[in-house]
Amino acid sequence: MASFRDLLAQAKSQITEVDTQTAEQRLGTGAVFLDVREPDEYDQGAIPAALHIPRGHLESQIESRLPDRHAEVVVYCAGGTRSAFAAQTLAQLGYDNVVSMAGGFGRWKDQGRPWSTPKVLSAEQRNRYQRHLLLPEVGEAGQLKLLESKVLLLGAGGLGSPAALYLAAAGVGTLGIIDMDVVDASNLQRQILHNVDRVGERKVDSAKKTLTALNPDVNVVTYDVRLGADNILDIIDGYDLIVDGTDNFPTRYLVNDASLLKRIPVVYGAIFRFEGQVSVFAPYEGPCYRCLLPEPPPAELAPSCAEAGVLGVLPGIVGSLQAMEAIKLLLGLGDPLIGRLMAYDALEQSFRTFKVRRDPACPACGADAGPIVIAEYDELCMPHPKQPPS
Ligand SMILES: [Zn+2]
Predict the structure, then answer these.
(1) How far is the CA of 370 from the centre of ligand 1 (A)?
(2) Phi and psi of 163, rounded to 5°?
């Protein structure tokens, strides 16, 4: 029967050890640093950009997380023992360019070599976002990215409600919500952020209560103001993207122009009776709202939601599609609806997608467009600058 000493001696005889100085040189030449310590050790400090797989999960995870068996790997633990066994195991699995760092992270740190405290999810967050973490396309890095993201929702109404609920549940760290209305009983047929007890309350306050109760990780920033030419640039500044749930043309044109100026993508959603539309306007990358609709339709052809009626589930579907596009954009996943308009027909139960091209003559984003003027618009969407041009 072999003792621990025998096993360690045997492992060390089968692997290559390097000192910390050699290891640091390899850090500069692109070697993969593999940290095999336990999560609580790793959380307190690690070599930057190290791949972390605790020794106990090494055999089961290494092939998916480091598929290249010829990659140059420097394994380390706290003192150099676990990494020796790990290097031996990696050789048995066919990894042919592996060394173990003698002295481990303890010596590395004592010698003043570079290390940092990795950004990690708390145990509670790991549990909350477990189903995201299981998706390799999201994982811990993606979840951390969502938690650091800032999304501004225009409106806490029909579209804003489902979008905000799903974005909050997904762990988007900062949600801005702008709405100047109060909760009305006639809203509750579709505005599921609110409820009967909150009738008469400011919509942004009601939204904040619902979202914070759903996910305390989310910082909800409220703007109980009318979005206008005087405040839009200040409000949207610093957000990664805008989810547009507004219901009138003047605001849409205002949002379009301001988002072009600030280069913030807009996830557009619109609803009318039984039909909905979703698209993504990525400034100067794809078409903008004015490329799609250079002028608003005549008022009689475009009644607002209040005048035309809407089936309550419809904004739920369209707002959820907006939330999905928002998360895709934040994580760089899949093909966002840039340059495409998706139309949903609830009665047919059908989706159709149309190509939308950038208009070279677009008055806002076209090559010959003049400087963008942020102005108030009337129902005909003619700009009325706050101060007449001199
Ligand atoms: Zn345009």
Answers:
(1) 12
(2) -60, -45
Cα-to-centroid distance, 122 and ligand 1 (Å): 43
Q: What is the CA radius of gyration of the chain?
A: 27
Q: Which two tokens stand for residue 312?
A: 């309550």
Name the burial class of residue 126, with classes exposed (0-12), middle (13-18) and buried (19+) by CB atoms within 10 angstroms of its CB: middle
Quote the ligand 1 centre to 225 CA distance (angstroms).
27
CA distance 293 to 119: 44
In three-state secondary structure terms, 167 is: helix
H-only helix segments in the chain: 4-14, 20-28, 39-43, 58-65, 82-92, 104-110, 123-128, 130-133, 139-148, 160-170, 203-214, 232-236, 249-262, 289-292, 305-308, 313-331
d(CA 253, CA 319): 20
Report CA(337)–ligand 1 centroid distance (Å).
15
Measured in Å, residue 233 CA sits from the centre of ligand 1 at: 18
What is d(CA 255, CA 251) in angstroms, rounded to the nearest whole number? 6
Residue 272, classified by CB atoms within 10 Å of its CB into exposed (0-12), middle (13-18) or buried (19+), is: middle
Neighbouring C-alpha atoms within 13 Å toward the C-beta of 318: 36
The alpha carbon of 280 and the centre of ligand 1 are apart by a number of angstroms equal to 12
Instruction: Please state whether the predicted TM-score (pTM) of the whole model is above 0.70.
Output: yes
> Would you give the DSSP letter of residue 299?
G
Express each pLDDT in 70-84 by its tens digit: 999 999 999 999 999
In this structure, the strands spanning 174-178 and 150-154 are parallel
Q: What is the pLDDT of residue 301?
A: 61
Q: Which residues of 154-172 are buried (b: 16+ CB within 10 A; e: fewer)?
A: bbbbbbbbbbbbbbbebbb
Instruction: Tell me the CA–centroid distance for residue 297 and ligand 1, in Å.
Output: 17
Structure confidence by residue, pLDDT tens digits, 299-340: 666 655 456 788 999 999 999 999 999 999 999 999 999 999
Distance 287 CA to ligand 1 centre (A): 5
74: enclosing H helix or E strand: strand 73-76
Tell me how far the alpha carbon of residue 288 lies from the centroid of ligand 1, in angstroms: 4
Rounded to whole angstroms, the Cα distance separating 245 from 321 reads: 12
For residue 168, the 8-state DSSP code is H
